[in-house]
Amino acid sequence: MMKRVEFGEYIKYIREQKRIPQGRVCDGICSRVLYHYYEEGKSCPGFWIRNRFLSRLGVSQKNRIAYVHYDEYSMWEKYWRLVECVDIGANETALKLINEIQKCFSEYEVSSIERQMIYALKAKVLLQINPKSDVRYLYFMAIKETIPDFQKKRIDNFLLSIEELYYILAFYKSEYEYYSDNIEKNFSAEMNELSNNVWDLIKYIEQSELDTDNKFWLLYFAKRLENELGIARTTYVCGNNKTSERSKVKENFALLCNIPKIYCESQVIDVYRRKQKNLLKMFLSAEYHQEQYSEL
Prior knowledge:
The chain is mostly helical. The chain has helices at 4-17, 22-26, 32-40, 47-56, 73-88, 91-104, 112-129, 136-146, 162-181, 188-207, 212-238, 243-257, 265-285, 290-293.
């Protein structure tokens, strides 16, 4: 087990190497004064806060030393049981654990990161139970736990962890699914705004100092959502709201999602651009024959 002072020295070293102000690392997590105490070794944050600091600083999982203090262990064990249940699809057990953990929130001092994780895991469970569940509120509340000024400031004003970027991407995805499933309400303005938000997110991820593996997969899913939005917006441009035609395009786009692992990010962009271009041609020409879809 590493000494408390060593953790403070480590995050201070990483932060200074990257020339990141203290306030950006701790924004939405703790006060700047308390963060200063952490760096100086005068206090030690709990497990979840330590990991979030390291994640915001771009430290990969393999370079982190994780330990759980004895007074954190009982809650930590509940969280990991919950994560395991969600992963294997034991949804009823997961919901019971979520309720059990939330009851503990009134008894223990919990971090915003723990509340954030519960919101996000509950959203994931509900989607596993019913893929049509509207989970926008849950993901939005998860984001607000550590990014209180979300939607008030541009995303490049924040220093975000891989987890926070994932929650934002999941929130945008849930918005897209809601708008797509309610196409008769004409959410064209909302789709345009969402598309701009996703593009800003992609630029943020590209310019971030996240560890390479996580950065690649975040970009992969963000660009996939960007392309889905491009197709959906074309539906509005064409003024074509026929469900049968739209479902064929959505069905075909599922084929795009099955792109094998590509290691070069530029290749991902090129593959999507080529395939999206073909799909948009079909939208504009209103040719929706199944044999044409099979050619993609």
